[in-house]
Amino acid sequence: MTFSKQELLNEITFRTSRSGGKGGQNVNKVSSKVELNINIKLSSHFTIEEKELLVQKLSNRINSKGILQIVTEEQRSQLHNKERSLDKLIILINKALYKPKPRKLSKPKKSAIEKRLKSKQLTALKKMSRSRNFND
């Protein structure tokens, strides 16, 4: 299941602050650091099962109030950081809600079994030829 940015924007809150690190005067003047917050438990876009799965898989990113928080300060532009944090959110949600297909059990082919047994037999013969009493 995929979610679009527009669907999630209604439930997301952004908080901006001044970013640290390199940037010269831009760091001191512009609030380019972006904190994206979304309350998974109160969200209307997810079913109950999806909410439980998200809380379980993203437990290390969700605080005690049930809010998923993503902090981005990679770019010098606040707009780019907002877009980047939205992208990160969608990737996190899609990874958490992904269910792998169950593996179908299969038997090895007859030719593969014969090939394996043949190689084992050759190895055994090779080792037997190295022993001292092979010609006895």
Share of β-strand residues:
5-15%
Number of helices: 5
Overall pLDDT metric: 85
**Gap between N and C termini, in Å?**
70 Å
- Tell me roughly what share of residues is in helical segments: 40-55%
Gyration radius over CA: 28 Å
Q: How would a crystallographer describe the biggest sheet?
A: 3 strands, antiparallel
> How are the strands of the largest sheet arranged?
1-2-3
Q: Could you state the order of secondary-structure elements as H and E? A: HEHEHEHH
Uncertain runs? none
* Beta strand count: 3
* C-alpha geometry: elongated
Task: Provide the structure class.
Answer: alpha+beta
Care to give the gist of this entry?
The protein has a 3-stranded antiparallel sheet with strand order 1-2-3, with helices on one face. It contains 5 helices and 3 strands; from the N terminus they run H-E-H-E-H-E-H-H.
Structure description:
It is a single chain. This protein has about 140 residues and is of the alpha+beta class. Helices cover about 45% and strands about 15% of the residues. It contains five helices and three strands, in the order αβαβαβαα. The chain has a three-stranded antiparallel beta sheet with strand order 1-2-3, covered by helices on one side. The longest helix has 21 residues, at about 110-130. The termini are far apart. The model has no long low-confidence stretch (mean pLDDT about 85).
